[in-house]
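Handout, section 3.2

Students often ask what a structure token actually looks like in practice. Rather than define it abstractly, here is a full record for Glycosyltransferase family 4 protein. The first block is the sequence as you would receive it.
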Amino acid sequence: MRIAILIGNGYGMGGTIRTVVNLAHALGTHHDVEIVSLVQQHEQPFFELPAGVGMRNLVPSRSWPARPAQGWPDRVLERIPSPHLPRAEARGRGALFNVRTERALRRYLSATDADVVIGTRPGLNLLLARWAPRSVLRIGQEHVHFSHHSGDTRGAIQRWYPRLDGLTVLTEADRRDYAAALRPESGWLTTMPNPLPPGDYPRSRLENPIVGAVSRITPIKQFPKLLEAFGKATRDRPDWQLRIYGRGQSLPQVRRAILDLGLHNQVALMGPTADVFGELAKCSVVGVSSRAEGFGMSIVEAFAVGVPVVSFDCPHGPAEIITHDHNGLLVANQDVSALAAGLAQLMENTERRRRMGAAARATSVHYSPDVIADRWDAYLRQRITARHGQLRVSS
């Protein structure tokens, strides 16, 4: 099958981009896969693309200095928010959706030779539902829990998503809530976790006194709470360090919290890394302090290198990945003292870390690219059969 995966900006380093590249890796072993980026904000993608997977951009961004010269019509069109999307998508952070990008996407969808087009956020899914021809299998992918969308976005989802040929969500909690909102036919909606990338992952020795955290540094990740918990856990363990990998809008608040808590000698802001597994393998524990998680890819990545995770039991992903006291610890949601106690337990007990690390590595097999690719294959063929009655796409 020819599969196109639509993404807002495939050239950055965010979690959705990383998981889209991983998905392209997984599906690309059996299918012809292309990533289609609505905008291009850098000359080259941050993440290395899989062999045989191309990246097509529809609109070079004005923020990329090497962009082709733009005429005044393009500049004007980019200033007009998309008239076909809810305000949260058309005017949200990043402002990917405007009249120019919308027209470019519509032209692409009208001419694509893909058998399957997968959208990866509400704006793309909504436009896919409106404009993709019936010759294309139209699959939406949701990375956000239904209740976390704005009211107008939820309304648009309920109106337009039923025109899609299927929808995948990341967790069982998501599946239940989207099912309640959309009341789909059997088989239309499914849970599809994000896959790991292929490869042999390094394995942590679980001996370094390092706690790791990998994420965009945004308010929902609540890094000041992780810093506070780490400070409490290391009062009698000054040899332990916290390494934070990522960048984002909350970086100034995180720097201030490090100084306010007196942790400048124990906390390192490492910036973004393309070698997530190599850096996580240097850690012995990973901490997660999010207010909410769409899935929890950093948890799965830590598991892949055999590192146990201590996380708030926040909605909705961690509890579906972490089995408490088996491959990590789930602590009371938003209880900083409980998070500190969980970190301290694993810091002080090497054998417990090793037991949980082995279980974590075993758990990560469920998210291997082969396993997730097989799940996608079965789902796509089931949806094709549901629509056509029999398989009528190129293989």
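Discussion prompt for tutorial groups: The chain is about 40% helix and 15% strand. How would you have guessed this from the sequence alone?
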